[in-house]
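Input (Tip attachment protein J domain-containing protein):
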Amino acid sequence: MAAVELDYYACDLKSGVVVEELQSLSPGTIGRTLGSSTTATADLALAGAPPDWVSATQPGRSMVVAADRLTHQPIWPGIVLTRQRGSDPTAQLGLVTPEAYLDRRYTGSYDASGGADQVAIMTGVSSALLVDAPPFVIDAPALGVSGVYSLQDGDDRTVLSALQELQQMDGWPEWTIDVQWATADRSAVQLVLRIRQQIGVVRPDPEATFDLPGCITSYNQLESYEAGKGATDVLAWGEGEGSGRLHSDSYTADDLIAAGWPRWVYRYTPASNTTSPAALNASAALTIAQMRLGSSVWTVEAAASAAPRLGSDWALGDSVRTKITTSDGHPDGADVVARAYGWQLDAEGNTVTPIMVEDD
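Output:
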């Protein structure tokens, strides 16, 4: 497989128009995480920078987009927030993915207390992104699933905080921000706020496989039964106080307890803070199913030139396979399918790192 080489473009942040190619930019590791922002620091060698590099990298006005040189596909955008320059032969740029911009725009008042499609609610609280903003477009087909939600301008809520709250509600859609070409001649980009029931392609037998021996150079599996990550007894609290406070039934992993597991109790209030006993029971049932065996997070570092290609073979939210024939930590091997909730890529260092969470 060909090495992963990236081209970097300086774009006008509001229009998305490509203004310069930054051939001397070295950003090190870039990455993305589902539903939140990531940062990167990039060095721009001034000797190889374009003549108009100063205006092309102005903080608050510009954005750097990384595209795969082989496929020409944009895979990562970073808004320029800081720039440091002086007597050194390089300028240093502080970059952040566009999710961070959502924390600089506010929802204002929004009322869907009477019920609306969950996707319509998520797009409604995001409407500020379509006014005096970077080149956002919203890709959000209706799901036909109703929800309720309301905000007042005085709540001082950002678009980011509202979307993150909604995504954490039981059964609500996921969201992310992708970057893509806006024109056939690749002269401009757009940022796509994508809302789906589930971001990515999730299937039990994905083609993208990271293997050892093979493309994997190192890996770690972190298993946790810490508070909030593992439980055999779950109860969800609703609204109210004292003896009048609503709560779900107690949901227990009876099979594990019978097999000798201790009772690990987890009590919580869902983000929606619902007044419906049925919704509280549904939340508790889902939570015990997710937490009964604790969490398992896999971090795999692979040679990017030998691994499934990011953006072509797999993407954020997709299922990927980790196949270990044998290792010190897994002498009997392992064959795990998990979703990539995040990734990191160091093209110059030839490393790609999917961050995968096992779903029970």
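The longest helix spans residues 277-291.
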